[in-house]
């Protein structure tokens, strides 16, 4: 497990320094045949890009990271990914998180024929070198040959960079762990979170087909969209990897106060406003009705 001083170093050191010091370590530590880890990456208006630290914590985890830049600032995450030995995919034509995820899944499932795919955000720190094995083992336990999803544990940490966040981070972490624990005890499906999740793509291709036709404009509550996609539209199952080795540390959504967090949790419009501030773009939320790509308008019949 990462020690507190290591976490502090990865959170505070400059991206250039991390790339210079750990590029060789990552190149040696990534497995071209390992479990693919999909990482949508954008910088937005963040003070610094966290992608180098994410890649460092994935090294020697028996994984191959797929970095997909998904914003107008794609040059920096692409250059970091290449320098550190990740597979870097082109920026999708629709510069959203969903489009980036779809591109990564296409490369992992259709091109490389993987059935187990893991996902982290580009600001996550994977805390254990057993993370991928624990997540994949849980997917193997629950899939029964059908689509399956697994959610790992998450600690929130902004490093005091975004206003009143230190106590808010503790509150959000404790609340998330409590909810995950209760849902595990009651044998309920997990509440998915894109910062730490995994999918099993069934051999028949049902989940892949549905995933490929998701609405690429979605860029908020994408994890909930995937949850509905697996459970309601693909007949799949879900499980919680309630294990410290399956934990990541994530900055999560950048709420600046308890008030903004509580309001944003209730109000999609306010959350969209905070996303626009922190990521520099308007965000389209999943609302339960816009899961799939809209059908093209019907063409009028020709008059003969």
Give a verbal description of the structure:
There is one protein chain. This protein has about 300 residues and is an alpha/beta fold. It has a single domain (about 5-280), classed as Spore Coat Polysaccharide Biosynthesis Protein SpsA, Chain A (Alpha-Beta Complex), CATH 3.90.550. The chain is about 40% helix and about 15% strand. It is built from 11 helices and 10 strands. The strands form 2 sheets. It has a 7-stranded mixed beta sheet, with helices on both faces. Helix 2 (about 15-30) packs parallel to helix 3.
At a glance:
The chain is α/β, with parallel strands linked by helices and 304 residues long.
**Residue runs with pLDDT of under 50 for 5 or more positions:** none
Write the H/E string, N to C.
Answer: HHEHEHEHEEHEEHEHHEEHH
The level 1 CATH classification is Alpha Beta
CATH topology: Spore Coat Polysaccharide Biosynthesis Protein SpsA, Chain A
Sheet with most strands: strand arrangement:
3-2-1-4-8-6-9
Number of domains: 1
Write the layout of secondary structure elements.
Layout: H1 4-12, H2 15-29, E1 35-41, H3 51-58, E2 63-69, H4 75-83, E3 87-88, H5 97-111, E4 116-120, E5 125-126, H6 131-142, E6 148-151, E7 153-156, H7 166-185, E8 196-200, H8 206-212, H9 222-231, E9 237-240, E10 247-250, H10 258-266, H11 268-279
Parallel strand pairs: 1-2, 1-4, 2-3, 6-9, 7-10
Antiparallel strand pairs: 4-8, 5-10, 6-8
Helix pairs in contact: 2-3, 10-11
Structural features:
single chain; 304 residues; alpha/beta; Spore Coat Polysaccharide Biosynthesis Protein SpsA, Chain A; 7-stranded mixed β-sheet; 3-stranded mixed β-sheet; 11 helices; 10 strands; 41% helix
